[in-house]
């Protein structure tokens, strides 16, 4: 007799997705200073605020503890760890270094069809910026870089970059109209350089995107008084 087919553990998958979503939300709040260093993140309060049960919050905090973003203090809860300028600079340095390596490879290997796809996505980004739609801006910007990084064919390196960019607060950039217009213009120059396989220009433009992002985030954290 054949063994009965096993059904997917959809409940477990959904719980893991919720945990990832909660971790992403808390990570952005910490990175943007919305949740300050030495603040205690309470399970019940956070679950109620985010509209989830305590379980995904607990799992999300375990993830953030592994990243050194929170620390568990017995009988008190999870305390947000200090975030220095050097921490921010190190995060962007890592992202930029990996992205430049991917860019150099992609600039040599990318096809005309892939470049055309990038141009289409950038047009969609321009439309999202014109419509003042932060959610669409963030998702389209992510798609632009996903298409480009895929062209490099270095999937493990792209995976490391994806995990490093978890520390970028996309909504902070997406709600900044000057950033949106700058991103579209930068992508246009990027695409032009790709059409001529100008590796040096592609790498320099990639570096510039992270330099600009770092400056904007540091400026924001200064404004909200994270280090005052």
From TrEMBL:
Please give the superkingdom of this protein's source. Bacteria
Q: What PROSITE patterns does the record tag this protein with?
A: HTH_GNTR
Under InterPro entries, the record lists: GntR_C, TF_FadR/GntR_C, Tscrpt_reg_HTH_GntR, WH-like_DNA-bd_sf, WH_DNA-bd_sf
Q: Which Gene3D superfamilies match?
A: GntR ligand-binding domain-like (1.20.120.530), Winged helix-like DNA-binding domain superfamily/Winged helix DNA-binding domain (1.10.10.10)
A molecular function (GO) held by this record is:
DNA-binding transcription factor activity
List the Pfam families hit by this protein, alphabetically: FCD, GntR
Q: Which residues form the HTH gntR-type domain?
A: 16-83
UniProt keyword terms in alphabetical order: DNA-binding, Transcription, Transcription regulation
Official protein name in the record: GntR family transcriptional regulator
Q: Which organism is it from?
A: Mycolicibacterium aurum
Q: Give the lineage.
A: Bacteria, Bacillati, Actinomycetota, Actinomycetes, Mycobacteriales
